[in-house]
Amino acid sequence: MANAPREIIIAKNLGFQYVGARRAAIQGIDLSIREDEFILLTGPSGCGKTSLCRCLNGLIPNFYQGEWTGELLVDGLSVTTQLTSELSRRVGYVFQNPENQLFALTVEKDIAFGPENLGLSREEIRQRVDEAMNVTGTLPLRDLAPYELSGGQQQRVALAGVLAMKPSVIVLDEPTSFLDPRTAEEVMRASDDLRREMGLTIVVVEHRLDLVARYAERIVVMDAGKIVADGDLEETLDEKFDLLEGLGVGVPRVSLLWTMLRRDGLVSGKVPTHVESAASSLGGMMNQ
Amino acid sequence: MSLKTLEGFKFSTLKTPVHLLDPRTKFLIVIAVLVPALLFANIYVMIALLLLQLPLLFVGKVARRWVLSLRAGVFLSGLIFVVNLFTGSYLSAIALTLRFLVLLTSFSLFFMTTSPDDLGLALDRIGAVRWLSRRWLGYPNALSFTFTTAVRLVPTLAVDAQTVVDAQRSRGLELDKGNLLKRVRNYIPILIPLLLIAIRRSLELAEALESRGFPGKEGRTSLFQLKLRPADYAIIALSLAMIAVSFWVYFHYKIPVL
Amino acid sequence: MITLEKVSFTYRSGQRALQDIDLSLAGGDFIAIMGENGAGKTTLAKHLNGLLKPSQGRVLVDGEDTRKVSVARLSRKVGLVFQNPDHLLFSETVKDEVAFGLKNFGFAPEVVHNQVIRTLEALGLSEYAETSPFLLSGGERKRVALAAILATEPDYLILDEPTIGQDYQQKERLRNFILQLYSQGKAVVMITHDVEFVAESNPKVILLSQGRIVAQGPADAVLSKDELVKKASLVRPQMSRLFGELTKYGLPSDVVDVHRARILLEEKLSEAKVRVAQNS
């Protein structure tokens, strides 16, 4: 039997309520993520997607106080027993606002920040920084100040800084909100390339499914703190389309189009999730 | 006072010989200027100290922005001059005003040519700072890091300040109208959003840094180090000499105001 | 009517932000200004209420030259909603926040009171009237900022990136709200890079690139042109990209909206069905 990818994140009945909040941000979360997966995490505003992500790298409960229930294992470690600094070696986090993640005076110093915190030798740090810059294409930016860069460049630098920690999982929380569509697509493609090259697990939180649909294989949908759908992206869009639409999730326009045509009996078959598959499916229908 | 005057103290990345000096060396230069400036109240000494710093300003390519810092100091210089006219002779007023400009120049030069990162590295090496940091904040490098991060946030917050002013003006806020009391009250819609934005930015930054392992264990390494080079040693020697000579002259001669 | 006549603007640093802009805005217009980062979109917006004055050319708001009138006066007619609501919010309650602009313009207390209530209702914020704006979520704060500007009922409303961080339902609500506004005779200008939102809302699109207007026209005409869209660092809407692959079936390429797409495809697919039935 071939080596099945191992489970790198296991959540059992995970719940969390922020101090002073009226209700739990997340509750009853049962989730299992395997190595090498590309997961799209989505749901209406306030559904708990960001809170779930914060649990993955220990920001909850270390940075955010509140009541924790259930269990969360990341790479075998129980999150509640670890400091964020320890978990940051395993789970990297790229935030929504590119500007507020970078702070050093040069790109190179910013990328070095993470490994420096790990107390590695200078040679090791040097090597990791160079590798991270190479892989993200940020080498030509090394001496520039982060605030001189465009949003897209800033996100790539943020990604490099995270990669220098050599994590096995990278969480990207609405990383493209402030980016123009072309740059957004580049960031997504880069994330997917990295996953393939380095065997990483990627979790992307995003409202606009069409940005991620080409790369994500699995979708996890949340609403009011609970997981309401979890499965293969194509299948879920196919079988649970009405649920998603009802929740106000931004389903890809091509998927919406297909479902409307399917309801009218003009097409049959699985809902396509992006332009290329939609074009070939429609082409097939019209060639008859 | 417009935000432009802050330009006279802002660091910019250049690679001049002055920029490349170790921050500790540059700080010693400040001391070397400070000591004679404070020990003596002689007009010629002040002019000499100003002239001494001119070559540094030019080699460091910051002369034009230094002029901006002088503009920032115009009001205070005027005040010092007038106050001293009442308490002393008009020559001593000139000398003291010049002293203020000498000190202003020296700090301006220091901040324009020293990167906050290097400052942080230098602070990190100072035992007293590390000790204090450990007592107050729990980690030896926390204090120097706090300082350098504050400096880095200044340009970002300056942009935020302008945006807040624009946003509130777009709601009809007029900052240049009304009596003194009204004008002060009119700054509330500027200061509150700015304060909150600063807090939000710092929290987001803190979150991002913690996600990258900050503050880490005791053994935090630094990729970059400060190295003292021949130029540093030369200037350190000169600075120490100047400090020594100043004290010696002070104790042996009485230098009059003129 | 707001008109920009050959407006050029250069920052004091020497950076040329706008060149030769000719534009006009009238009540009932719904316009989207799009372009890459640094194209000059926000700079252009700031010219509409006088925050910036043109280096060359002039901007007329209802006949008044913006160089001759104060920003405060222009703000009565031109409401500019900044991208980040946190740049505006400072009051103890949402009610006070919404009243701020009204008070600045010198309206009587009863008028202020009534306007605040009406505006809060229109934006679904009545339940938060006595709440501190800082306790609200990001999306709610954005609505408070919008309410604060709308309270004074400006004739021209400019929204800077109103859809960032919003989920689909919030965007739907925004779209409906905008529709209400311009059908009431207001002019609505939206600065955005959200191509899908524009595709579904069908405004007139003005494409800026490096300070110049490189295209203007209906959304389906402008956003389906690949070279233009690339220049502005945008991507074509999904429908346009889809139809781009289907032109060999005789379908037009300038489709951006799902509903039009459906109608066009319904025709072709029905034809195909008929053919299948005939052949069997």
Largest sheet of chain A: 6 strands, mixed
Share of helix of chain A, binned: 25-40%
How many helices of chain A? The count is 12
Task: Choose one word for the global shape of chain C.
Answer: globular
Q: Strand content of the residues of chain C, in percent? A: 15-25%
Strand sequence of the main sheet of chain C, in spatial order?
A: 6-7-8-3-9-10
The low-confidence parts of chain A are none
What would you say about this model in short?
The complex is a heterotrimer of chains A (288), B (258) and C (280). Chain A is α/β, with parallel strands linked by helices and 288 residues long.
Mind sketching the topology for me?
The complex is a heterotrimer of chains A (about 290), B (about 260) and C (about 280).
Chain A: E1 7-18, E2 26-34, E3 38-42, H1 49-56, H2 59-62, E4 66-74, E5 77-78, H3 84-87, E6 91-94, H4 107-117, H5 122-136, H6 151-163, E7 169-173, H7 181-198, E8 201-205, H8 209-212, E9 218-223, E10 226-232, H9 233-239, H10 241-247, H11 253-263, H12 275-287
Parallel strand pairs in A: 3-8, 3-9, 6-7, 7-8
Antiparallel strand pairs in A: 1-2, 1-4, 4-5, 9-10
Helix pairs in contact in A: 4-5, 4-6, 5-6, 6-7
Chain B: H1 17-20, H2 23-39, H3 43-59, H4 63-87, H5 90-113, H6 116-125, H7 127-137, H8 142-169, H9 180-185, H10 188-210, H11 230-252
Chain C: E1 2-10, E2 16-25, E3 30-35, H1 41-48, E4 56-61, E5 64-65, H2 71-74, E6 78-81, H3 94-104, H4 109-122, H5 138-150, E7 156-160, H6 168-183, E8 187-191, H7 195-201, E9 204-209, E10 212-218, H8 219-223, H9 226-231, H10 238-245, H11 258-279
Parallel strand pairs in C: 3-8, 3-9, 6-7, 7-8
Antiparallel strand pairs in C: 1-2, 1-4, 4-5, 9-10
